[in-house]
Write a structure and sequence with these properties.
Order of helices and strands: HHHHEEHHEHHHEEH
CATH class of the domain at 90-212: Mainly Alpha
Radius of gyration: 19 Å
Keywords: Cell cycle, Cell division, Chromosome partition, Cytoplasm, DNA condensation
GO biological process, one term: cell division
GO cellular component, one term: cytoplasm
Shape: elongated
Structural class: mainly alpha
InterPro entries: MukE_C, MukE_N, Scp_MukE
CATH superfamily of the domain at 90-212: MukE-like family, C-terminal domain
Helix content: 40-55%
Protein name: Chromosome partition protein MukE
Length: about 240
C-alpha cells in the first residue's frame, strides 16, 4: 500500500509514532494501567512528542490518553472501552491514599524521598482505623496476631501492585524501601483544591474513602488477584497497573 493510501487512514506523524521501537512495550504498559512519569525519560518524552496523535489513536478503543496536571500519562477507560480493565481493592486504594499523604509530607524531603514498608504500615495504622483495616482483610477478624500478620502481608501485596502501576519504585534488594512517584496523585484528585493538600488527604484517609482509580469501575476484581505480595520480582512490567481505575 502506498504512503498516499496510508495517509487516508492515519497521519504521517501517527504512522511515525506507531513505527517507533518504543511503542509496542509502552502501549502494552499503558493498556495494563501503568502510569508513565517524567522519571521514565524515553517513554515520557515519546508521549510528549506524539500526545495529540496518540490521543486520537486510543480514542478508537474508547479510552483517553490523559496527561495529569503533575505531568504523568495514563489511559482512562470509558464505559464502552475495548481494552480490558480491572479494579483496585479497598486496601490497595487506601494504601495509595496513604502514599499520596506521605508524598506530601515533610518526611519525604528529610528522607531523600525514600520510605520503608514498615513506615508505610505504621502510617496506615495511625491514619486509619485498625479494626476497620482488619475487617477489610477478614470480615470475621478478632484482632488476633494472625489477623495483623495477614494485614501486613496484604499491605505488602498492595505495594507490589502499585509498583506495577508505576506509582512506587523499590530501591532495596529486599523490596523493603521505595520511592513514591508523582502518579500517586491519581489517589489525590479530590484534594486538588485551595485546601492544604496534606490535610485534605488526611481527611480522606480517616473518612475511609476508597474510590477506585478507574472512574467507572463497577466490576469487582477476583480475590485471587489480591495476593500480589507473592509475585516474584521478574513480574513483567506490562502486568502493571490496571487501567486507570
Amino acid at each position: 500500500m502506498s504512503s498516499t493510501h496510508i495517509e487516508q487512514f492515519m497521519s504521517a506523524k501517527l504512522a511515525q509514532a506507531l513505527a517507533n521501537n518504543l511503542f509496542p512495550e509502552l502501549d502494552s504498559q499503558l493498556r495494563a494501567g501503568r502510569h508513565i512519569g517524567v522519571d521514565d525519560l524515553d517513554n515520557h518524552a515519546f508521549l510528549m512528542d506524539f500526545q495529540d496523535e496518540l490521543e486520537g489513536f486510543y480514542a478508537r478503543y474508547n479510552v483517553e490518553l490523559v496527561r495529569a496536571p503533575e505531568g504523568f500519562f495514563y489511559l482512562r477507560p470509558r464505559s464502552t472501552t475495548l481494552i480490558p480493565r480491572s479494579v483496585l481493592s479497598e486496601l490497595e486504594m487506601l494504601v495509595g491514599k496513604v502514599l499520596c499523604y506521605l508524598y506530601l509530607s515533610p518526611e519525604r524531603l528529610a528522607n531523600q524521598g525514600i520510605f520503608s514498608t514498615a513506615e508505610l504500615y505504621e502510617e496506615l495504622l495511625s491514619l486509619a482505623d485498625e479494626a476497620k483495616l482488619l475487617k477489610v482483610v477478614n470480615n470475621r477478624s478478632t484482632g488476633s496476631d494472625l489477623d495483623k500478620q495477614k494485614l501486613l502481608e496484604k499491605t505488602r501485596g498492595a505495594l507490589n501492585r502499585l509498583r506495577r502501576l508505576g506509582m512506587i519504585t523499590f530501591v532495596s534488594a529486599d523490596n523493603s524501601q521505595f520511592v513514591i512517584a508523582e502518579s500517586v496523585f491519581r489517589f489525590g484528585a479530590d484534594v486538588r483544591s485551595g485546601d492544604d493538600p496534606r490535610e485534605a488527604q488526611l481527611r480522606l484517609i480517616r473518612d475511609g474513602e476508597a474510590q477506585s482509580l478507574a472512574e467507572d469501575e463497577k466490576h469487582p476484581r477476583p480475590e485471587d488477584q489480591d495476593d500480589d505480595n507473592e509475585e516474584s520480582d521478574n513480574d513483567n512490567a506490562t502486568d502493571e497497573a490496571e487501567d486507570e481505575e
